[in-house]
Design a protein that fits this description.
heterodimer, A: 341 residues, two-stranded antiparallel sheet, two-stranded antiparallel ribbon, 2% strand, B: mainly alpha, ABC transporter involved in vitamin B12 uptake, BtuC, transmembrane (chain B), membrane (chain B)
Chain lengths: 341, 288
C-alpha cells in the first residue's frame, strides 16, 4: 500500500514536470495558465461529485466567490498573500455553512441540485445589482455588471512590488495544481476519503455503521469549494478583472460537462476534460462557421449517450485490454450511486 | 383602492406566468420523472415560431395558440425518440443530456436567427384604472393560466387517455401488463409537455425581447417551481407558483424588482429546507 502510494506520487511528479516543461513550447503560456486554472476547477467538482456523490450545480458560485473575495481583499490590503488565503478559507467557510444546511436537512440528488443552483443565481443577481457607489466593502466598489478591475495581482509574498505574471504565473498555477492534486490523492487514500466513497455507494449502510454521514459530506463539500475558491483567486490574477459572469449558469454547466467528458470517479478525468474542452472552445472561438455552444452541447449529449463513463476510464480500460494482465490493478471504483441517484 | 387593484392584478399575473412557465416541465417531470433542462429553450423556440409565423402574415393568436405548440411539440417528439428514450430511469443522465440539448438549441438559434433581439408588440391594448395604467395583456396571461390548469385537470381526471397516463405514471409495468405500451405513452406525454412549453414561450414572447439565450431566464424558475411543488402534478404546480409569485411580488412592491427575484430564490431555499420533498409531500397529499 505505502509502496504503491510512493510510486503514485513519484509518477505524478515526473509526469507533471515533463508536462510543465513541454507544454509551453506547444501552446502559449497565457492560454495554458487558464487551462491549468480550469483543470483545478474541474478537479474540485470531480472530488465532491465523483468521490462524494454530491452533484453540485453551483460550483461556479465558489469559483466566482473565490475570485471576488480575492479582488476585494487585494484592494483593501494591497498585497496578495493574505487575500489568496482568504479566498480559499472564506469560500470553504461559506460552503461549510451551505453544506451543513443542506446535508443536515437530508436533502439529496435533485433537491441538492436545485439549492446549489439557486444559490448561484442569488449571487449572480445580487452582484449584478451592485453598480451604485453605496455598494462597497472597504475601498473596493463592487461595480455591478462591470465587475472589479485594477486590484493588486499576485506578488512574491512580502514584496508587493514584485509581481508574478506571464510565464511566472503559469508556473505558479501549474505547481499549485500539482500540489492540490497530490493533496486530493492523499485525502482519497486516507480513511476520510474511503468513507466518503462508501457514503457515495450506500449512505444508509455507512450511517448504520456509525459514521456521521452529514458531517462528512459537509466537510468534503467544503474542501471541494475551497479548491474552487483557489482556482477562482488564480483566475482573478490571470484575467485581472472579476465580473458577475463568473457566477453564471453557463459556467456551472461547463464544469459539469468537463467532469462527464473527462470521467467521473477519477482524479485525472476532470482535469483532462477541463483543459481539453477549454482548449477546444478556444480553438472553436477562432472560427465563425459553427457556433461553439452548439458543439459543446453536442459533445455533452454524445458523451452521456455513448460514453457515460468518460474519456479517462475508457482509455484506461483500453490500455489494460491491450497490455493484458501484466499490470494488475484494483478493480475500478463503482459509480452506481453517484450517477443514478 | 386603485392601487390595491393594481397590486392584486400584478400578483395574479406573477402567479399565472409562473404556472405557464412551469406547466410543460411539471407534466414531463411529474409523469416521467425526467427533468428536461432544455425546457427554457423549448420556450425560446415557441417564441421564435410565433414571431416567424406572425412575420409570414399569420394571425397572432393562431400563431401563438396553434402553430407554436405544434412546432415545439414536434421538436420535442424528435428529441424524445433520439435522446431521452435511451435514458429513462437515469435521472442525472437525462438532466445532463437535456442540458447538452439546450446548449445545442441555443447554438442553432444563434446560427439561424442571429444574436439579436427580436419581438412582436402585444396584441391587446392596455387600459387605465384611476391614475394607473394596467397592461391588458396581463389579463390574457391570467386567463390562459387558469384555462391551462382547468384543461390539465379535465384531461387527467376526465378522459380515458388521462386515466391511462396516470396509471402508467404510477406503475408502468402494470400498465404494460394490461396491454398499454409505456413507450408510446411516454412519447405522447413528452409531446404534450413540449407543446405546453412552446405555448408558454409563445404567450410570453410579446412581453420580452427574444434572444437565443432567453431560455436561461425561464429554466431556473421553472425548475425551482416544479421541484418545490413536489410529487402531485397540478396541486404542486399551483401551490408552489402561488407561494413564489406572492413572495416575489410582495418584495417587488416593498423594495425593488431585483430584490423580488432574490426573495423568490431565498423562499425556494427555505421551503426546500423545511419540506425536502416539496410542498405536496406534506399538504394536498394524494391529490392530482
Amino acid at each position: 500500500m505505502t509502496r504503491s502510494a510512493t510510486r503514485d506520487v513519484i509518477m505524478t511528479l515526473v509526469v507533471s514536470a515533463i508536462l510543465i516543461a513541454v507544454m509551453p513550447m506547444l501552446v502559449g503560456t497565457y492560454t495554458l495558465t487558464v487551462l491549468v486554472i480550469y483543470g483545478m476547477l474541474g478537479l474540485s467538482l470531480g472530488l465532491i461529485w465523483g468521490f462524494g456523490g454530491i452533484l453540485c450545480f453551483g460550483q461556479a458560485a465558489f469559483f466566482g466567490l473565490g475570485a471576488y473575495i480575492y479582488a476585494i481583499s487585494a484592494i483593501n490590503i494591497g498585497e496578495s498573500t493574505l487575500p489568496m488565503i482568504l479566498a480559499v478559507a472564506l469560500t470553504a467557510g461559506f460552503a461549510l455553512l451551505l453544506g451543513a444546511m443542506m446535508f443536515y436537512g437530508r436533502l439529496t440528488d435533485v433537491y441538492l441540485g436545485v439549492i446549489t443552483l439557486v444559490v448561484t443565481l442569488i449571487l449572480f443577481k445580487f452582484i449584478n445589482t451592485t453598480a451604485g457607489p453605496q455598494y462597497k466593502i472597504g475601498d473596493a466598489r463592487l461595480g455591478g455588471f462591470n465587475g472589479i478591475p485594477g486590484f493588486q495581482t499576485l506578488n512574491v509574498p512580502g514584496d508587493p512590488g514584485a509581481y508574478i505574471w506571464g510565464d511566472a504565473l503559469f508556473y505558479v498555477c501549474a505547481v499549485a495544481l500539482v500540489i492540490v492534486f497530490l493533496l486530493v490523492t492523499w485525502l482519497l487514500r486516507s480513511s476520510f476519503g474511503r468513507i466518503a466513497v462508501g457514503i457515495r455507494e450506500n449512505e444508509t449502510r455507512m450511517a448504520l455503521m456509525g459514521y456521521d454521514v452529514a458531517a462528512r459530506k459537509t466537510v468534503l463539500f467544503a474542501i471541494g469549494a475551497g479548491i474552487a475558491g483557489l482556482a477562482g483567486a488564480f483566475f482573478a490574477n490571470w484575467a485581472e478583472i472579476v465580473t458577475p459572469t463568473l457566477f453564471s449558469l453557463g459556467q456551472s454547466a461547463e464544469i459539469i460537462i468537463w467532469c462527464i467528458v473527462g470521467g467521473l470517479g477519477t482524479r485525472l478525468g476532470p482535469i483532462v476534460g477541463a483543459a481539453g474542452l477549454a482548449y477546444l472552445k478556444f480553438m472553436l472561438g477562432q472560427q465563425s462557421m459553427i457556433d461553439n455552444t452548439l458543439i459543446m452541447g453536442l459533445v455533452l449529449v454524445i458523451f452521456v449517450l455513448f460514453l457515460p463513463r468518460g474519456l479517462v476510464p475508457a482509455i484506461g480500460s483500453l490500455w489494460q485490454a491491450s497490455v493484458g494482465r501484466t499490470a494488475r490493478r484494483r478493480p475500478a471504483r463503482r459509480m452506481r450511486r453517484a450517477r443514478h441517484g | 383602492m386603485d392601487i390595491s387593484f393594481v397590486i392584486l392584478v400584478e400578483m395574479l399575473y406573477a402567479i399565472a406566468s409562473l404556472v405557464l412557465i412551469s406547466a410543460g416541465l411539471a407534466v414531463v417531470f411529474g409523469m416521467m420523472k425526467v427533468i428536461n433542462l432544455a425546457h427554457g429553450e423549448f420556450m425560446m423556440m415557441g417564441g421564435y415560431a410565433t414571431i416567424t409565423a406572425v412575420g409570414l402574415g399569420v394571425n397572432v393568436f393562431v400563431a401563438m395558440l396553434v402553430i407554436a405548440p405544434l412546432i415545439v411539440g414536434l421538436i420535442g417528439l424528435v428529441v424524445e425518440r433520439l435522446v431521452i428514450r435511451h435514458l429513462y430511469g437515469r435521472l442525472i443522465d437525462t438532466m445532463l443530456a437535456t442540458w447538452g440539448l439546450s446548449l445545442m438549441f441555443i447554438g442553432l438559434a444563434t446560427m439561424i436567427f442571429g444574436n439579436t433581439t427580436t419581438g412582436i408588440s402585444t396584441p391587446i391594448q392596455g387600459f387605465s384604472v384611476g391614475d394607473y395604467q394596467v397592461n391588458g395583456y396581463n389579463f390574457f396571461i391570467i386567463v390562459m393560466a387558469i384555462l391551462l390548469v382547468v384543461l390539465l385537470y379535465a384531461v387527467f381526471k376526465g378522459t380515458r387517455a388521462g386515466l391511462i397516463a396516470r396509471g402508467t405514471m404510477q406503475r408502468s409495468d402494470m400498465a404494460a401488463a394490461l396491454g398499454y405500451s409505456p413507450d408510446r405513452i411516454y412519447m405522447a406525454t413528452f409531446f404534450c409537455g413540449s407543446a405546453l412549453s412552446g405555448l408558454a414561450g409563445a404567450i410570453l414572447a410579446p412581453l420580452v425581447g427574444l434572444v437565443p439565450t432567453s431560455g436561461g431566464a425561464y429554466i431556473a424558475k421553472a425548475f425551482i417551481t416544479v421541484i418545490a411543488g413536489g410529487p402531485s402534478l397540478i396541486a404542486g404546480l399551483v401551490s408552489s407558483a402561488a407561494s413564489f409569485g406572492f413572495v416575489s411580488q410582495v418584495f417587488t412592491f416593498a423594495i425593488s424588482p431585483v430584490i423580488g427575484e432574490v426573495a423568490l430564490l431565498v423562499a425556494a431555499v427555505i421551503l426546500l429546507r423545511a419540506m425536502p420533498q416539496g410542498i405536496t409531500s406534506r399538504f394536498f397529499k394524494g391529490k392530482l
